[in-house]
Amino acid sequence: MAVTLSPSAALRRKRIPPLTTTGIAIVALLIGVALLGPLLTPHDPYQFSIRMNESPSADHLLGTDDQGHDVLSRLISGTRLSLMFGAGAALIALGIGAALSLVALSFGRIVEIGVFSGFDLIRALPGILFALAFVAAFEPGATSVMMALGVSFSPMFAMITRATWRQQMARPYVAAAQVLGASRIRVNAVHVLPNITGALVTQFAIILPRCIVLESVMSFLGLGVSPETPTWGRMIANATQYTEAAPHAVLAPILALSVATFGMALVGDAMRRGFDPDRRRIAA
Amino acid sequence: MNGRLVRTLLPIGADVFRSLVIAVGIVVFSFFLIRMIPGDIVDVMGIEGTLTYGQQDAMRESLGLDRGWWTQFTAWLGMVLGGDFGDSLRYGTPILNLLRVAMAPTLILGASALAIGLTLGIGLPVLACVFPKSIFVALVQFITLWSIVVPTFSIGILSVIVFAVWLDWIPAIGNIIVPAIILGMDTAGTLAKILHEDMVDTERAAFVRTARAKGLSRWRIVLRHILPNALTVVVALFGILLAGALTGAITTEVVFGLPGLGTLTLQAIQGRDYPVVQAVVIWLGLTVVVANLISDLVQRALDPRIGR
């Protein structure tokens, strides 16, 4: 395992630039809030009240929304949900993309062409369009949106798997394993897979913020989670109808979403640059 | 002679064939996607209580849902190939008319975004290359970072609040300039990043050193020697950029209240108007396929290194 493809090793090589440090701090904060979630909320995020669209005060630090929910509490519990749905979609994409392409690459040229034409087809349909079509066919809801985003982002993982797989196949350790009589499946699963994990993790870090944004977009369009569920997208959708009366109710989730994607994208981009010293992208 | 012709035409044929396969795939996919609904469209409408059993049967017959799926598929395919997407289930009007009306704002928004994106995305790297130690290099880096870390969705809603609600500079519904700039920034960032990297690489090439030794001006070196070499990147990216601008337009127009394809699709999904969703998927999918094919072919014609 002499090939250093672990993200940490790639980062250690250089001094970490300040922007990346900011990104790491944001991601750490997000994970902390998502994990501690219910312990941090000052009020019950589902609690209605007659104090609607109130400006921020000592009791409600970020004010209340159109149904009298405490915005801060909803924001905090929304962090866990938004991250969960986004990560769920990205994980489905990783699972489908990486597993299917590795299997296809193990079974020879014809299977490879077949499976990758399927991925080409999905890639031809832009993410949001695919998600809309998918949700139209199945019921709108959190699961459909996660599945739809997972399937539509799977080609991104399939492409990166194939590209790194080809690089690895040219390495001596693969030839050595083959000489020792290992089957193609064994070579891929036991020897190549650990070596392309780093590239897949990096791709995951790049895809994750996009999944979180698209999940919010779908919720904003009313096709994601149920109206009561406090994900960021849902909060934005509800509050945009009252921007005049309660701008804080829409600004809070929008800024949370922006800061979250900002931090994650910075980390993802830093990881990508750590992997590609010659600054070339492996897959668009 | 003949061998050379084959060598030129074969990769072009392969490109066209691949696009055709994907186009057919999109059409077939959009047909079967709708068939994946448990039950059928009429069942769904029946559960909503809008139709009696007699009406359900009549509707099934008029839509041809009582026949086998193969018969349905061939009949539907014949219609679509003839450019007829059928009627909307909700409005009863031909879908083609709905598409035609909704397409205008989306196309205008997508095209303006693309125009802004190409101007900034090519202009900034060129200026950064001519003046390597100026603010333009920082601008390229800024716009690149912007497109990576700022989603058009969140900045779109933020601008609606700031410009429409607070400052009252633009109407909250129907403004096209602000969304075009937002989408254009996104396109510009994607393009500027790759173009800048490519131009910096080309800068080190031997022919650039020769041009400099000949005493050519900085502008002439960049515009006549470096840029044409890097422009293949723009052509290669064109399909992706167009797809990005069009799909970006779909979400952005909903945020800015423009009555385009995105709004139409959204209403169709909420109203279970499946044929409309189908038509939008086919139309946008095919646009992307054609754009990718064109950019592949132009790239092949411009860059003799590809596919030989």
- Largest sheet data of chain A: none
Oligomer: heterodimer
What coarse outline of chain A follows from CA principal-axis ratios? elongated
Structural Rg of chain B:
24 Å
Task: Please count the beta strands of chain B (DSSP E, at least 2 residues each).
Answer: 0
Structural class label of chain B: mainly alpha
Strand content of chain A: under 5%
Count of runs of 4 or more consecutive helical residues of chain A: 10
Question: Average pLDDT value of chain A?
Answer: 80
Q: Would you mind describing this structure in some detail?
A:
The complex is a heterodimer of chains A (284) and B (308). Chain A is built from 10 helices and no strands. Chain A is mainly alpha-helical. In chain A, helix 3 (71-106) packs across helix 6 (142-169), helix 4 crosses helix 6 (142-169) and helix 8 (184-220) runs parallel beside helix 9 (232-239). Chain A is elongated and about 75 Å long. The two termini of chain A are 28 Å apart. Residues 277-284 of chain A have low confidence and may be disordered. Chain B is mainly alpha-helical and 308 residues long. In chain B, 79% of the residues lie in helices and 0% in strands. Chain B has helices at residues 2-35, 41-47, 53-63, 69-81, 95-130, 135-149, 152-166, 177-203, 206-213, 218-255, 261-270, 274-302. Chain B is flat.
